[in-house]
């Protein structure tokens, strides 16, 4: 069975995914890392050199490959992956796949993201916590209907990584 981890940037998909995979003795796959490897450049470089539409197009392509090629893995997606094209449908209909939404409040996400925005092209330019809060709030409003289609929703606020993994 594949476990697909979904959630906004900073929701803990990668850290939780790595630990969960180790405990389940599954392999761990990170869609952003797959994209960077296949495209021979960082996500930031892809956004800068080719633009977001190009990124969203290849993100959908590699999502399908990753869902097809893994059978016993924990797969962490990018924060926007389920929200473009038919991606959420592809995830829902993938055989033997359980989707989990790692839900977090605007404040938790903003606290986690403020010092980690440099490698995230969508938020790297936001200079204040207020601007980041506003951006996340707007984005969550648009994206939650996709995230909430997951089979399982886990509220991660005030929980440690180990608690969420358990
Ligand atoms: C994005 C999230 C990023 C990465 C890209 C776009 C988004 O992944 O895919 O910068 O649209 O939310 P993380 O959620 O792993 O930071």
UniProtKB/TrEMBL annotation:
Binds 1 Mg(2+) ion per subunit. CDD domains: SK (cd00464). GO terms for molecular function: kinase activity. Its main location: cytoplasm. It holds the Pfam family SKI. Its EC number is 2.7.1.71. Its cofactor is Mg(2+). Substrate binds at residues 32, 56, 79, 143. It is found in: Cytoplasm. Pathway: Metabolic intermediate biosynthesis; chorismate biosynthesis; chorismate from D-erythrose 4-phosphate and phosphoenolpyruvate: step 5/7. It is an enzyme of class 2 (transferase). Keywords: Amino-acid biosynthesis, Aromatic amino acid biosynthesis, ATP-binding, Cytoplasm, Kinase, Magnesium, Metal-binding, Nucleotide-binding, Transferase. It catalyses: shikimate + ATP = 3-phosphoshikimate + ADP + H(+). Mg(2+) binds at residue 14. The keyword Heme does not apply. ATP binds at residues 10-15, 120. Catalyzes the specific phosphorylation of the 3-hydroxyl group of shikimic acid using ATP as a cosubstrate. Belongs to the shikimate kinase family. Monomer. This is Shikimate kinase. It comes from Geojedonia litorea.
